[in-house]
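Action item from last week, closing it out:
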Amino acid sequence: MIARVQRVGRALFGALRRPMARAFESAENPLNHIGAMTVFFLWIVLISGIWLLIFFRTSVSGAFESVEYLTREQWYLGGIMRSLHRYASDGAIVTIFLHLVKEFVFNRYRGNRWFSWVTGVPLVWIIFVLGITGYWLVWDELAQYVAISSAELIDSIPIFTDSMAGNFLSDDLLSNRFFTLMAFLHLIGLPIFLVFGIWLHIFRLTGPRINPPRRMMAATLLAMLILSAVYPAISHEQANLAMAPETLRLDGFYLHVYPLIQIWSPGWVWVLLVGVSSVIIVAPWAPRQKKEQAALVTLDYCNGCERCVDDCPFGAVEMVARTDGTSYSHQASVDPDLCISCGICVGSCPTATPFRSQGALIPGIDLPDRSAATLRDEIVAAGVGKPSPHIIVFACRDDNQLKEIEKAGLSVVKVVCMGQLPPSYVDFTLSRGHADGVLLLGCQDGNCSYRFGAQWTEQRLARQRDPMVRRRVDLSRVAMGWQAPWSENATAVKKYAAFLEALKQ
């Protein structure tokens, strides 16, 4: 069932990707920076919120008037800031939803990735509460509806003895302290928890991308400024607790569950909210993912160079004091609770060289389930008895392109992630005559299942990152075919045919 839902989700992302791919290059495609776009929207919310705070008055009578002043009289700046605040908040909800769905449909939430997934749930709650308290502060008819409905929700929780909804029976019962409390929660209290939550969410990631490309930020900001000028955010009529609002323009991004409070009951709404959150939290263990063996360090070949530490996407490798009494001061150590067995550390290890002629091929760090020695043996086997020019294809284990090239009967060597392949293996394949060309097939940068596979591979082959491919390697005999993991286009064989023709010439 889960696999079927994920297939449907990947197909939907593919449909969304096609128009995006025509409009943007891979490095600037918004679908490759969904998480970073959320942070960018939150920056806009923060900066615009600071400006609004300067003019906001925390009182029953002053709240609505100060917001109206910004919207009507200071429309050229305050009104724009208010609209930016509103639209950036809505944009954050959209990107959060897309980020959650993308991680789920591409199976990036299970195993040792559960921590980032679970810590994202409180973040969603905080952002929704931030948005709801923001509507309260305007104190128009919509704020009145939100305040009373929220009070009914809170009153349905049995731990509270005093009724919160009683504060909204009349204007006389509502005090200025209420707006002071709401302003504190919205502007200080909740943002502090949000910043801490974001830090915790990316705590286990190495080099997290929290900022999208500059051109993407500039284009997004410009689009939102135009939207703010053409369709400015405006208030309803001022709140009047003696009357019930007749017509409301509900924000479907933050207030979509509020009509259910009247249709059902506050208690059943809590059941829905808590139930959905609970399902999301337990998703990494329903069912539990099969545990793969973590990367293994062999001290006889580890010189403490730290390259595996620098390249690990999930902070699973660290340097510790040496334990075998050699002249080296440090050694690599793998935390099995953080390692996701991607093999990128193997691709960064200088001792993972297939040219070793003495003894077994055992690098300083290796994957027990997909060892460097096994890769070398498969390269040798793939080159036996093949007519020239011959190409060996290296493909990521979970890449959609893999099915296509296997069906075509091409020579394929699988890796967990393209970052697992050390540059010396490309040299070995070409210099020892196992193939006339090497085709690397994997995920586009920004869509790698293990975050940095394509990026590290490109930099190693471009001799920009250690370990680098040797100068003697003719890079015209190496081709790369990155493709988004949700793409269903049959392009791998076409890439192979074009590369083969180029080798012939």
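Closing note: The chain has two domains: 31-282, 296-504.
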